[in-house]
Amino acid sequence: MPRSLVIWSSLLLALVLAIMPLPNFMQIGRPLWVLLVFTFWFLEAPKQVGLELAWCFGLAQDVLYGATLGEHGIIFVLALTFISLMRSQFQLAPMWRQSLALVIIYATVLLLQLWLNVLIERRPQSLTLLLPALISSLLWPWVRLGLSSLARWRMV
């Protein structure tokens, strides 16, 4: 199976997980599936997964969520830009440090998203908006392990 097919399949699965219905009490902590998968592939295959593709998937997520067009695109591009600035340190760090870095990066871009929502006069959400950053960073080791296994399996 070509690597690009594996990448596209995992990104489309992440998009499906992002819009999958959840009970109301779980909605507030919905993981940032698309951003998690983009983070992995951005580190693993930077020539195939770049900021342009992240922007396009962000626009797709905006359409699926009914959000302001460009909102998720900006969030994805900024998060991946922060990650690219520390790519070498990030890849060499132990998993707990990677998760800590991701919670900081994801929380930062979610705060920016909150600020953008205030600017366009949407009802501001509370700081529980940061819960997805925490949950996503806790899921990072499993997402990384699963996608690494998938990438290695594809190479056999």
From TrEMBL:
Membrane topology: Multi-pass membrane protein
Keyword Cell inner membrane attributed: yes
A Gene Ontology cellular-component term: plasma membrane
Keyword Nuclease included in the entry's annotation: no
Keyword annotations of the record: Cell inner membrane, Cell membrane, Cell shape, Membrane, Transmembrane, Transmembrane helix
GO biological process: regulation of cell shape
TM region(s), chain numbering: 6-25, 32-51, 63-87, 99-120, 126-147
Compartment(s) of residence: Cell inner membrane; Cell membrane
Predominant localisation class: membrane
InterPro entries, per database record: Cell_shape_determining_MreD, MreD_proteobac
Domain of life: Bacteria
One of the Pfam families matching this protein, by short name: MreD
Functional description taken from the UniProt entry: Involved in formation of the rod shape of the cell. May also contribute to regulation of formation of penicillin-binding proteins.
PANTHER family linked to this entry: ROD SHAPE-DETERMINING PROTEIN MRED
NCBIfam families on file: shape_MreD
Family according to the record: Belongs to the MreD family.
Protein name: Rod shape-determining protein MreD
Organism listed in the record: Thiopseudomonas alkaliphila
